[in-house]
Amino acid sequence: xxxxxxxxxxxxxxxxxxxxxxxxxxxxxxxxxxxxxxxxxxxxxxxxxxxxxxxxxxxxxxxxxxxxxxxxxxxxxxxxxxxxxxxxxxxxxxxxxxxxxxxxxxxxxxxxxxxxxxxxxxxxxxxxxxxxxxxxxxxxxxxxxxxxxxxxxxxxxxxxxxxxxxxxxxxxxxxxxxxxxxxxxxxxxxxxxxxxxxxxxxxxxxxxxxxxxxxxxxxxxxxxxxxxxxxxxxxxxxxxxxxxxxxxxxxxxxxxxxxxxxxxxxxxxxxxxxxxxxxxxxxxxxxxxxxxxxxxxxxxxxxxxxxxxxxxxxxxxxxxxxxxxxxxxxxxxxxxxxxxxxxxxxxxxxxxxxxxxxxxxxxxxxxxxxxxxxxxxxxxxxxxxxxxxxxxxxxxxxxxxxxxxxxxxxxxxxxxxxxxxxxxxxxxxxxxxxxxxxxxxxxxxxxxxxxxxxxxxxxxxxxxxxxxxxxxxxxxxxxxxxxxxxxxxxxxxxxxxxxxxxxxxxxxxxxxxxxxxxxxxxxxxxxxxxxxxxxxxxxxxxxxxxxxxxxxxxxxxxxxxxxxxxxxxxxxxxxxxxxxxxxxxxxxxxxxxxxxxxxxxxxxxxxxxxxxxxxxxxxxxxxxxxxxxxxxxxxxxxxxxxxxxxxxxxxxxxxxxxxxxxxxxxxxxxxxxxxxxxxxxxxxxxxxxxxxxxxxxxxxxxxxxxxxxxxxxxxxxxxxxxxxxxxxxxxxxxxxxxxxxxxxxxxxxxxxxxxxxxxxxxxxxxxxxxxxxxxxxxxxxxxxxxxxxxxxxxxxxxxxxxxxxxxxxxxxxxxxxxxxxxxxxxxxxxxxxxxxxxxxxxxxxxxxxxxxxxxxxxxxxxxxxxxxxxxxxxxxxxxxxxxxxxxxxxxxxxxxxxxxxxxxxxxxxxxxxxxxxxxxxxxxxxxxxxxxxxxxxxxxxxxxxxxx
Length: 948
Hints:
The chain is built from 31 helices and 33 strands. Strands 6, 7, 9, 10, 11, 12 and 16 form a seven-stranded mixed sheet that branches. The chain starts with 21 loop residues before the first helix and ends in a 6-residue tail after the last helix. The mean pLDDT is 94.
């Protein structure tokens, strides 16, 4: 039997397991971090660093976390940990939005109609709070399981007394400067949830609606048409998709500069916009219809503004007269050019009423039912009223045509049902009275960094076009609007003193006290109505919009908890792209309104999570991905790696196949760490590191400059919040440069050289630099695995007194940490030279693969390679030691010659295979070990190996 040299080889040894078993091991590591107080240790380490505050947008405290929650919270953790790793002081206070209609609705459903009819408001609020508390705990555990660091034991909750008091402070500032007012104007109203809705609480979906053309009889024929012989009757023709709003009609609006003509059809003259006459004739099915002409035969046309003041009989309330007005919103691409105007049922209609003094009718109640003002349709729900009104119009001879269209229509964000427009008494924030719109737009465009930058245009257009903000809601579970009403005359009672008293009440007892205490118990003595002097005041019943509540977190959290390291304005807000019309907007409006500045220095948004095919997830479709299931099967680090791999600024896809690919990428990264750890088992930087740059072989120098370049690329990507570039940069480096080149090349030195040989220690010196960079830059992403790697460091790497107990305490690598130091000029020179070298290696690798496929060789080690190259390339190649190429190409012999183009020839070595290192070399170079190559013989001598 021949001699076995296996025991003379130095093979990798490490306790770092090949199989991660993340679902079982991650919870243990979480418990360890919690027991050690790792979050607080990171803050203590960085306490003198530059503060960086990512202010958490509050998720709604209802139900377990879903994949969108996980995506968002993991992104935030990337931001916080990447800054903490680089020495920033990074307190992270998670929060929850706990008030609002969804929780109140759930409690109502659980109680049932009978109990709800008897329950008092304080009890209802207590039940809502208990529901919120329960789900805060559920979600908190879900977020912690993701590996997200934060002060989880002291989150901010919007029902907490100090938070509720912040609402009063901001409301006081906006009210006293005139931005907040009470008015009657049309707003979105959900008849099922019985409350007003702000624009941010509206979602749009396709809805099938009635499409009707109705004629309103003019009191007189307009003079231009009368002169052309029209004797009457004459009508205005309107088009609408909401028949239920016709009882509220008080005007018809025309386009001021558009031309209008009259069509003679069915024995009457009907006024329509000239540009729409053809489509109207088609819709009405009129045959033989003709425009009114003058004596010369030309069509009679009149500008919309010249018809101003004409009157007509209102369609349902026929005891009322409507007026023809004009407005810029009238479009000429659909309809008739004559817009049915009901000021109680639409924003543009309301603006017409304020401009022209039109009456504002509101024949619809809180339940969405028509009132007695609607005449024969009183008591009907708006949906039921539509067919009834259409039938009535047909009977009355006013209906010209009826059909149905599908169009985008506003829906309630909570019950997902269509909303209606109603003019009701509400509280509003004026966008223009105190120039809030202009100030906010200036802050958006000049003071805030938007990530991506086009988001500034998105939120800017929303703020530029939005109406006044309706901030009152007719519900129980929320923060009351902190004003009072005079019991005698109904005037609003609110001044600095009453606001301060309410602030103190909420701060000490919470907003529940609004419903349990009498106003005189906490208001200053002598509080009275300024209008009539009455001393009896009644607390406002409406509550604040939840978007206002979450929006004032800049005050209730960032300002009030400044002693915990938070600050105002925050460095970053990060939420979904829908928050440009939600939290991002409510935050900047309240902040600019109260303090004149934006609440954030930068805003970053993420897209929505979609299924693998790019479809929206839903329970009914069964295409949802539960993060809890992913963590049970694959672990949180796989989910975190998926988040890092996608471009978060767009909608992102996730599914089983995508997660499978992510798991494969994770295994590739994990196995790389295992190789690095195993190869450094006997390495101690203090003793074994090669400290002279010139003592490193050229390929080791290249590997050092390459990992240094990766460090700078990753750092730039973190600075730009481009985490997918961090992932892509690291993964491509591992696959293309580390695994495929350097690790493959240096295995011979690591396994076959003597333990203390210069060549082996040189390779280990490079590998320890690579390990130190990779484990630290990946710690924000693969938090569990990076910490496991750090914990698995060989004894020689952990012996230094400065070795941190966790990678999250290890800090960020920089150029000064590299050992040996990389000369500045070396990096660019090596990069240039090795770019050509690696191109040749790629050609050689392909030629070797072709030879293996053709059965001309079995392993690359037995090959000889002849490289022919143009003179310029050959000059670059020959600048390096020829022996380097045998190691780099992993072949027996390499030769170069000049040619017009690059070519590679593969042959078989005439040397024998060394039974120890398996390289093809001349054997017997060491007389004491004639069966092995000279290098291996010298190693065997060094370790005192005796041949059998």
